[in-house]
Amino acid sequence: xxxxxFELYDNVGRDAEQIAAARYGIATRxxxxxxxxxxxxxxxxxxxxxxxxxxxxxxxxxxxxxAAAETRAxxxxxxxxxxxxxxxxxxxVSDFLLAVAQWRxxxxxxxxxxxxxxxxxxASRSLAVLAIADEAxxxxxxxxxxxxxxxxxxxxxxxxxxSGLPPAPPHTPPAGPTPGR
Length: 181
Fold this sequence. Notes:
α4 packs antiparallel against α5 (115-145). This protein has helices at residues 16-24, 29-46, 60-68, 72-102, 115-145. By secondary structure, it is mainly alpha-helical.
């Protein structure tokens, strides 16, 4: 049964999603959001939420510092400062998404790919951004400050001993008393 607001469209002025939705008799993303906004109006009247987006951080100081950076250490300092500054906002978003996933216990026994599981994955991934950026920064610092040792390759014309095993220890005399003559 179709939602009462859903009407099949003609294709004039419609985008691909709308055309496909009409063909299959399903609602578009915009249809779903419009219906939810309409049905939530009384609730939102009792629980008003801010209309403006969350404040965006001022990236100008970070970009200016990055442009002026000349060493990996300086780039890392800017990167780590930004990650530290962004962490509280990303953690708040992650916590909210987790709360939505757990709303009224809908996550208990939820199947993989279900809305609660997808929300939990989104909560995790929102914090993964910080971990991945930190990992990249540390890998860059490791390459700068603690590179892997160069392999011990013999000079041209020299051959390596046997099979790559460590050299045999020097000969040591047997321990203990020696047999008499």
